[in-house]
Each structure stands twice: as C-alpha cells, then as structure tokens.
Amino acid sequence: MSVQNHDPGMAETGTPITPPKISLAFEQHLAKVGPSGKCDAMVVYRAPTRQPVQVRGRLRTLKARLDRIKRDAVGHVPVQSRLFQGYEKVSAKASTPLGKLAFSTIGEDTLPVAWVEVTPDSARQLTNDPDVVAILPNLEIGLIRPRKVDYVGLGKQENKDGCTWGLKELDVPGLWSKTKGEHINVAVLDTGVYGNHIALAERLKGFIVVDSLGNRIRTETSFDSGEHGTHVCGTIAGGRTDEGVSIGVAPSANLFVAGVLIGNATLRTLLEGISWAVEQGADIISMSLGFPYYEPLFDEVFKILTDQYGILPVAAIGNENYGNSSSPGNARGALSIGAVEKLPGGKVDVAFFSSGASLVFPGAGPSDIVTKPDVVAPGVQVYSCIPPSKKPDGTHEYAYMDGTSMATPHAAGVAALLMAAKPTAPVSAIMEAMKDTAKHPGGAARRPDNRWGWGMLRPWEALKAL
Q: Is 190 designated active site?
C-alpha cells in the first residue's frame, strides 16, 4: 500500500518540487506490518513562526539562548497538543488488533518532533494535516565505524611537531594565538565519553545516556561503551599527551556528550540526543553516526537547528566508498565531512573508503541535486584519546583510528574556533566560509564534486573571509 504524497503537477514543468511528506523508506516498513499492523515513526511538525536566528551575537550569552529555547518550547505545545488530540480520534478508529496507537513528545518540547505509532491508514491521515512537515521511520542507527585501530605509539614526526598530523595539515596551532574555542559548546552524539581522561580534563560540561526507548539517563560518572566517542571528543577539544603532543583542534571548547549509541539505537534515540543538545545551549552538534540511505526529509530537523537556534550540524558522510553516503550526513543542511589521508611526499588525497554521492529524491529536478560531502578533513591515522585499554603490551590511553568519523571532529573543532573568533557571525556564514575557502585540487571550477566536495578545510582562510 502506497502512502506517498507527491505533487506531480510541479514536476511536469521542470520546476523543483517538494519531497513527499512521508519518507519513501516507509514503503517497506508498512508493507511488512500489513494493513492492520503498526510501526514506529518520527513526526516533524510546523512550529509557530519566529524570527530566524541571523546573527549569533544576538544570542551570545548562554542565558539569552536558553531563554529563547524555553520560549520556543512553550510555543510548540499548542501545535503538538492539537496534533495529538486529532491523532487520538484517528487511533480510536484504527483497524488494528494491537490496541490504541501511542504517541509521545521528544525531550522537553524543544524540537517540534514527536514519536508516534502509525498504521498505513493513520500515516495517510497525518500527511493530510497542514502542520505535519515530515514523517520518518524510526530506523536503527549506528556508528560510522573507523576502518582500523592501531595501537602503535606516536609517530616520530608528530612527536617532533608537538601535534597530530591533522592539526598541522590544517595549520590549527597557528590559530591558537587568536582563539582556542573559548565559550563554544560542542555537543557530541556518540558512544559516550571517558570524561576522566587526562586529555579531556575540565572540558566535559554535560553527559547523558539515551536508551532505546528515548529515556534520558543521568549518571554521576561519564563512560564510553566503546572507544569511539572518547576518540572523537579528543580530536575536538583534547589537550596534550604526556609526550607533549596536542590532539584537539579547539582545546578550550566545552563538550556536552550524549551516549546515543548504547544498546539498540534508533532515530528516536538520535532525536532525543539532538533535543538535549539544544537544551544545553550547543553551538555545534557533531555526529559520526548514521543509517545507510538518502533521507531528504531529515533536512527538516537541520533547518530547525540552523534557522531557529543558530546551531551548526556537522556529520560524517560515511565509510562505504565512492557512490554511497549515509544519513543524516547526506541531508542538504548538514555540513557533511569526508576523509583525506597523508601520502608520501606530503600530499593529501581523499581516502579510498570515504563516501560521496550526488543525490536527488524521486521526481525532483536538476536544481534539487545534493552533492556530498561538503568538505574534507584529516581522517586517516588520527591520534586521539581512548578509555584505558589493557593489551598484552600494557595499558593504552591513546590510539590511531581511521574514518570519516575522525574527519568530522576536525571540522567541528574548526567551526568552534571560527565561532569563538567571530561570535556575531551567523551559522550560515560560518558554514559558507568553511566551504568557500576550502581548497580543491582541481580548482574552483571543479567545486563541488562528490569526492572532495568544496575541498580541504583551510581554517585561516575561513577566518579571513568572516
């Protein structure tokens, strides 16, 4: 049974069309449950119109930003209540032996998003509501996993340079005389973090775990269910190792970490983490995670982050090689990141595993093509901190990892430096400066493509452009 909601009239003229309200990925889910079955969905609804965040300086104090978030949350409630009341009527008529269709809010009403159970009939009813913007299946999400882990000690060159090769390649240490990311809040949605690591001393300002049902679990001690989240945090805001090697791009930035990849992680888990990050006053949300298909409707969530709250979403594009990509990194509004590696002779090139694609939703025109990644950053043999790990040769607290997961925190750290140096710059200007000043080996005429995107990040040039 099809539940698509196309507008074919626009497509015939060649004019760009709007994607259907309901994700095309729902077809297989609703087909599996049958006409009387139900499945989980995430519904994005239209929030009351507010003045978009154009200049971050208007909300530069944390109190002012949090006050704005609370006011917006109050405004979401009437729309959400009306939707829920209407859905109760639909639920009462639902021809399912499984009982009433449940629904619940996400977080503290911060995001205009709700979790609902849908049947094919009720999903169609929801698409008819003018306040419903998008309906997405509650898919499982997972790590953008690194390609390998190598417990070899620091390279001689990094020891000599006093920083990782990625920081040196981006010329990050030269920016530290101007800014180290002070007062910028970076939220990391990952496997958690070992906050007691010496390299992360005083950087962790908030921690939470989100379970598979979307419940927020607060713990007195932060932890990492693997090593991935700690490694990512170290690249964003880590300090120096015992050998004096700097690992973090923005070592004075604040970290807020949500363990959203612990247990059975789903889109609901991710959205709960995003909502929590907004409530903490995040400036940047870093996501080295995803699900393997193109979901243009996820862009509705990113529009809320950028337009309503002035938050920059940074996401890995994936490790599935050329011609592939992962959501939400492939959403139009994400700053999506590919990975480069260091080659003999000092050159860099896009790593073989780094994903990239040119994407378009069914029925759309050429102007709707989305080319990802947006930019690339160091993502091979990236040295950063991990929770203490016992191995035959001793206990290791640092490791090398490869992946677009490792490139993403480099970009999030660069964004933190730029925001700290230019506190009144809108998030749109930050994103455009990072893309416009990136260096593509084929020159400006080749930008963007689906390997390099706009090119390799150049933080100094981006700062000059702001």
A: yes
